[in-house]
């Protein structure tokens, strides 16, 4: 494959996934992670949830060799740091205090989606040696791009550990943590509960009992009615409106499009009362191995309903369908008491300004030590009877 990667490697930015095309995209993103699929990113762009006006201008990096697409890096020109979940607000403020512009920056990420997965899609037939060549060319190209003063920096967020390690040789590496539930081949929810210490087991049972009078129904996205989708969107928008004053990053057109284009990987959880009135709703995605809890909303504030809708129902679904991991979203230390384990997340960064690069590098090095200690402390608080057996 080394001769395949000759001097003819070309790297270019594209302003939409549509201009790249589904066949080329699917050739390099080959797993079933729903968030790197062509349909997901196309829905973001066509619904204008992602566009220049929203501060996410598509700048997808396409790598070709002998005119064939061999790799793609989904990228966006950002004019702010919202919707990334790897927080660099303090870096932007430091730039501003020194009279420098931090924005625009270049971000390789899935918008509004703090889920780890492929960030550098590459053809499966490529050898390990050639893969390293391509990764090095991408890094060099992005470094030259920010040195041209077009961007202050570039950032690759929530990428796999192997790519993180490779990029960490020449970039600033940053560690984060999330909380995922791991399925230990539990036959039923009660078998999961049986692995918890008595006090935590009783607390979960009490939480669930308090909202057991509601009806909870999972519906495949491609089988949900238009009214059911509208109900979810209403819940989502109302909850965002109450908490942040806007109706959320994603609009109704986006949800309508994913219902049509990738509904088989979507699950709507509808929560209703005895009169069949919608009380709350949550949106999940599935792959062959993972359940992803993404969005939720409620029309009535009910104690414990969020935990039931977004955590316990997801755990039950994962057990019933034999899924190995339930990723319920970013942050949320309170998940630990409910059996979610801390896991590492990875990002790489490069900054054009030499002095700021040194400061950010040292900051991230110190931050990594704190993150590792934080994760160790939380691991000791896991509610399982035998923590040493956890993976």
UniProtKB/TrEMBL annotation:
Domain of life of the organism encoding this protein: Bacteria
Record's protein name: GNAT family N-acetyltransferase
